[in-house]
Design a protein that fits this description.
Blueprint: H1 2-19, H2 24-40, H3 43-61, H4 66-81, H5 85-103, H6 108-123, H7 127-144, H8 150-162
């Protein structure tokens, strides 16, 4: 995986040089490198890149663009893994609001954002809030994706943890 990160660093630098920091391909390269860092357990490096990606994405695309949702979600999950649970919850709540506004209550990205926030609430021991969100995600998953879809099963499992 080290080779992947090294190659992605070169690609990111090339994208910045040729396309600029706000180009969609540059932002995508930044996201890919950040995810590689995340998988490697290099959470500080991942968070640093994800913060830049989120800022540049908002600058380039505006706050109401689907790519922003992925950037918000990824950074919130990194904060969660860094045990920065308050920061994770704040960012994930914002992601839920944007998802519901842009995509509606039953869109798969909205359901994922609800599930992620419910799991963060578990860490905060806010179980009533967690259950409410995870029930909504599970029911939405059943309705939109089907009861046997992997995401629906994940939402059900996460809900069981809160129960």
């Amino acid at each position: 995986m080290e080779d992947a990160a090294e190659l992605q660093k070169v690609l990111l630098q090339d994208c910045i040089k040729v396309l600029g920091e706000e180009h969609l391909d540059t932002l995508s390269a930044m996201n890919n490198l950040a995810l590689t860092y995340w998988y490697q357990g290099k959470l500080e490096d991942a968070a640093e890149l994800q913060q830049i990606e989120l800022k540049e994405s908002i600058t380039a695309l505006g706050e109401e663009y689907p790519n922003i949702l992925c950037a918000m979600n990824n950074l919130a999950l990194t904060y969660r893994d860094q045990e920065k649970v308050e920061d994770a919850a704040e960012l994930q709540r914002a992601a839920v609001v944007v998802c519901e506004h842009l995509l509606g209550d039953m869109h798969p990205l909205t359901l994922e954002a609800l599930d992620n926030l419910g799991c963060i609430y578990q860490l905060q021991e806010r179980l009533e809030d967690s259950i409410k969100l995870l029930e909504k995600a599970m029911e939405g998953g059943k309705e939109c994706l089907g009861p046997e879809h992997p995401a629906t099963l994940l939402y059900s499992m996460n809900l069981a943890v809160s129960y």
